[in-house]
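[Q] Does anyone have a clean structure-token version of this?
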Amino acid sequence: MSKIVTKHLLDTAARQGGKLVFTAAAKNIVPIQNVLAPFLEAHDRVTLFEIGSGSGQHIAQLATAFPKAIFQPSDVEPSYLESILAYKEDGKLDNLLKPILFNCDGNRPAMSDMEGEFADMSITFDLVFCSNVIHITPWSVCEGMVASASKLLRQGGNFLLYGPFALDGVLEPESNRTFDARLKEKNPAYGVRDVRDVEKEANKHGLELSDIIQMPSNNKLLVFSRSGSEE
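[A] Here you go.
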């Protein structure tokens, strides 16, 4: 296993054959799996679209833990799609679909990139999930992400957004403020986002904030419900 430099800020990955292994993803997969369990076990065939699957560690673990659910991974980086596919093949995960290129610009993925029934873009998903993306990308990515989530979700579905967040202008604890400062040193357009700013953007697209779940390591899971119409 050799260290390599990756495109993820403030993290490096090790390579295991064709698979990339990020330290942060390895640390938080268990709490993420636990908090997503009620959503993924809501019925026998829950469908989930992940925005920004990265190495594929999270979605491969979820596909292993929840074999009745169907998972569609995606990422904007072609090199990550190779890693996701390696996880799929190594785990023999039939419920983990072929990863697709997906850019958070508000557009739907091309029909030719989707598999099986999801090639029909009238099909929507029960869940859209994203972790640790919007603080390491410009705000325009968050705008595109919530617009995309709204289009990808069925009525009554949930957009699940995981990562560090400020709340009502307050960012706690000190470690998160230090992290925010480091991100802004890398790029002034990056930084830990406030829940209320994300909520305001989501409301434009018919997504209502229904829960804020506290997670380990000073992270949160924001739960949005697709219940309204876009502004």
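[Q] Thanks! Anything notable?
[A] Confidence is low (pLDDT under 50) at residues 1-8, 106-112.
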